[in-house]
Every structure is written in C-alpha cells, then in structure tokens.
Amino acid sequence: MEIIHLLFLAFAALAVVAAFNVILQRNPIYSAIGLIVVLCSLAALFLTLNAQFIAAIQIIVYAGAIMVLFVFVIMLLNVREEEARTDRQKYLKLLAVPLFVALLAEVVVVIRYVNATPPAIPNPNTVSDPATSLGTVESLARGMFTDYVLPFEATSVLILMAIVGAMYLARRESPAEVERIEQALAADSAAETGADGSPHA
Amino acid sequence: MSSVLNSIDIQYVLGSLIKIALFWVFIMITVAYMVYAERRVLAVMQNRLGPNRVGWQGLLQPFADLIKFIFKEDIIPLSVNKVLYIVAPVVVLVPAMMVLIVYPFGPRSAPLPGGEMLSNMLNNLGNSLGYDWALDLRHVNLFVTNFNVGLLYIFALTSLGVYGIVIAGWASNSKYSLLGGLRSSAQMISYELALSLSVVAILIPAGTLDLVKIVEGQGGTWFGFIPKWNVLALFPAGIIAFIVYLISAIAETNRVPFDLPEAETELVAGFHTEYSALKFALFFMAEYVNMTTVSVLAAAVFLGGWQGPLVGSYPWLGFVWFIAKVFFFLFLYIWLRGTLPRFRYDQLMNFGWKILLPAALVNIVLAAVLGVIFL
C-alpha cells in the first residue's frame, strides 16, 4: 500500500459520488457541476496511473471546453427544473435494468479474466528516452502516428464530417429565405397574441 | 499504515510544502503590490498622485485594503443561489493558485546558503527521534516540481477558472451579473484557443512541454550576442507567436483593452456586481494571480525565463532575472490600461476568431516548416 493507492481510492470514491449527483439532482445546473467534478476526478485518476498527458487533455477538452458549453446552454435557456416531457420515454426505464446488468457483467468479466498485473511503469524522470516511458507525450505520439495511425485518421475524418454537418445545419439561409421565416414567425406570434388575448411572453 | 508512511519521500514532500508556502507568500505579496503599483502608475500617467497616505509613499496601502475587505459586512443578497454564490469565488481562486507549483522561478540545484548546517541539524534531530531522514539541503531547485506536461497543466487549470465566473454570474440572480458572466466566459473560451495555439508554435523549437526544460533549452546565444530565447527562434515564427500570445493573454485575463466583462458603463461591474467584502476580494485576487500566471508563461516560454548573464556562476541571479521579466509584463498591463480605450464586443469576437486564431494556426505551419529546415 502506497500513498498513491490511497489517492486513487479517494478520487475513485469522489468520482462515484459525483456521478450519482449527476443523475439524482433535479436542477440541471447541479448535474452539470457534478459531471465536471467526475471529469476532474477522472483526470486525477489518470495522474495516479502515470498518464499525465491524458490527465491534462481530459481537463482541457472535457472540463475546459465541452462542459463549459453545457453550462452555458443551461444558463442561457435558464432551465430550472427537469422538464415534464421526459416522462414520455417511460419504456427507457425498463430498458435501464438489463443494460445495467450487462454493464456489470462486462466489468466482472474484465476483472475476472483479463490479466490484472499491468507491466512495470518506467519512471519518466529516470528513463533517458522519454519515448519508451509510459504516459509521456512522446510515447503517445509514437503510438498514435505509427501503430494506430489508421484509427486515428478515421476518427479525425469522422470529427471533420461532424463539423461540416453542423455547419451545414446552422448555415445562414439566403436573404429571401430569412425574410420568409421572419414573416412566418411574425404571423405566428400575431395569431398567438390574438388567441390568448394577451401578448406572448 | 507504516508502509504508507514509508512510501513518502520526506525530503521531497516537506521540501515541496515549504517551497509552496514560500512561493505562495511571494505571489500574494506580488499581487498586493501589483494593485498598489497599478494605482500609483496610473495616477502618474493621469497626472494625479494616487494613494500615498498609508505608510511611506502609501506603501502600506495593500494591507490597509486587505484589513478593510476583511472587516466589511459580507452581504449575501436574498435572491441568490446561496451554495453556488459562496462556492464561485473559491472556484475562481483555487485553480489560479494551483498552477504556481510549476512556475520555473530559477535553475536546478542552486546552492542553499547554510544548507549543510541546516541538513546536519535536521538529521541529528531526526536521529534523536529515531528516524533516518537523510536530508540533503545543500542544493535546492528553485521551483516546486517539474513534470512532463507542465505547460498543459497550466492551460488545464486556467481553463477551469471560467466556471467560477459563469457560476458567479448565474448564482447572483441579477441581469448584470449574468450578462457579465456570459461575456466573460465567451471571451475566455475564444481567446484560450489562440493562446494555446500560439504556444504550440514554440513547442517546435523547445521540443518539450516541461516548463523547466523549456527554460533550460533557452540558454546560450546566437552569434555570441543574441540570446537564444524562443521569441527569436525560427524567425519570424517565434515573434508572431509572441505577439499573438501577448494579445490573447490580455484578453484571457479580461484586462484593458479587452475588459468587456467589467465594462462599468454597460454592466455595472460584470459578474461580481453582487459580491462584496472578502468574496469580492477573492475575485480581485484571482484576476491578479491569473495576470501573474500569463506573465510567468510569457517570460518562461518566450523570453528565456531565468536565463540571463552570469546565471551559470550565480544561480540565484536566475531568480532575479525571472522576476524582472515577469514584472515587465505586469507593468505592460498597467501601461496598456493607462493608454488604450476599450474594444466593442463584436470587434473583440471578430478579432479573436477571424484574425488571432487563423494567425496562430498559420504560424504553427510556418514554425513546422522552418523547424524541418533549420532544426
């Protein structure tokens, strides 16, 4: 038992508690903050596993970029409580049980049958060539651009497609289209005001 | 439990803690006097006197301000979300302070005056208590730690600070705070990209993400008189990266001319409108600590950190060079504040996304091409 194991357990416990917080909170802003805590404790877990680069990237990409967007949207829309229409998907609750059992079985199988002793980790401070020690930028880059170059490139093409798709969906229409939509919206709000008898908030 | 204790390297842990405490005090004093210097220098630039009453030339003003902040009534408005309102200043300040463990204040193993006596004394004390500490304090590293992703560690933690601002704006339940918080976070996210990408170009000549090694790699001179600083490396890629970095660093820390989140004519005080007393002081401190952080990065990554004349023979001189370079950037902040008007919001966003970001991206390609040719 070393201090690093204690740290691992502490951050693992924190991650689990925060993960429960994500799904049990009714206010979406608390859920989002719980998710940020989960991501940060995962980064700390990576640190205890000697994967410093992954830890830093985990925080920069997930906590620093993606979750900021989440929090942003929640605050801009000012979603206060969980909305009622999620009840429409009640069958998902029934699906949750078998999926959870499957996940649990998977974890058990991995723990039971996969070789549990990891290879000895060379310390980056004592190894002369950083490319041979685990967790450094050098070794990661070597793996990414030699052994795993095809999956890496495929992923980047996938992400590029996602970006192009988002641009296509969000692109500005032609001036005529914009005018048509604005007119439709104006007619819509005029009709609503008339039906309610009060201006639409 | 004893095995846990045995796995701890006493010299490393205790030494790090002591160094963290010392550097923390140093940064705090820097921040306090940065505020004082800002007020005095701005006053000179605007033909005024500035605070000169508390102590000689007003030198005790920061402590007077601190005492005032502590003793002011801490008002929590009724309509705020209490938990998040209290947590927000902490979320801003803690990541800002956490980065100081990778600041490269000075070279490795500088001789500690009286270190031999001190280590003998402590070892004797340990022996009499029944421990064999085997402390060796004859040389100390003038930084807390170095690890192979030090630069990314700084970027990761500074990117967390934005949550404190967003949460403060939202939890205050006030339109000025919310607008200020949204503006601030939009600005920080936009300029963070240009900031990180400008440093990527420098990684090509530096070849490492470890801040201490980046500084060590900048020793020596070209042609005997030009210092081997990264700002001059792979000319002109280094200098372009430096300019992009400097502009986005000022925007990243929400300072003039990019202080839109605190544009008092439009937003009262931005995200911290509803904060008072010590909570406001925490935001204030975090802003100045962040300014110190980007100045430290500018000095370490671009201007050779503690490298300078005579550092080889007097390692402690490196500390002085480093501090001088950091203070130059801190002075630049004040100088700009006394000189430039504020940007408009659309100008700010256009400038960040359409000029700085493409410039940083093209500069990486340029640096890579020059790197292949010359390195």
What does this protein look like?
The complex is a heterodimer of chains A (201) and B (375). Chain A is 72% helix and 0% strand. With 201 residues, chain A is mostly helical. Chain A has a domain at 1-87: Four Helix Bundle (Hemerythrin (Met), subunit A), CATH 1.20.120.1200. Chain A is extended. Chain B is mainly alpha-helical. Chain B has two domains: 83-107 and 147-374, no CATH class; 110-141, no CATH class. In chain B, 65% of the residues lie in helices and 2% in strands. In chain B, strand 3 and strand 4 form a beta hairpin. In chain B, helix 2 (10-45) crosses helix 11 (277-302) and helix 9 (237-252) packs antiparallel against helix 11. The N and C termini of chain B lie far apart (51 Å). In chain B, 43% of the residues are buried. Chain A binds chain B through residues 1-4, 6, 29, 33, 36, 40, 43, 52-53, 55-57, 59-60, 63-65, 68, 71-72, 75-76, 124, 130, 135-137, and chain B through 3-4, 7-8, 84, 147-149, 152-153, 155-157, 159-160, 162-163, 166-167, 169-170, 178, 181-182, 185, 189, 192, 196, 209.
Mean pLDDT score of chain A: 79
CATH topology name of the domain at 1-87 in chain A: Four Helix Bundle (Hemerythrin (Met), subunit A)
Q: CATH superfamily of the domain at 1-87 in chain A, please? A: NADH-ubiquinone/plastoquinone oxidoreductase chain 6, subunit NuoJ
User: How many helix segments of chain B?
Assistant: 13
Mean pLDDT of chain B: 85
Q: What is the CATH class name of the domain at 1-87 in chain A? A: Mainly Alpha
Largest interface: A-B, 30 and 29 residues
Largest sheet of chain B: 2 strands, antiparallel
Attribute tags:
heterodimer; A: 201 residues; Four Helix Bundle (Hemerythrin (Met), subunit A); B: 375 residues; mainly alpha; 65% helix
Concise overview:
The complex is a heterodimer of chains A (201) and B (375). Chain A is mainly α.
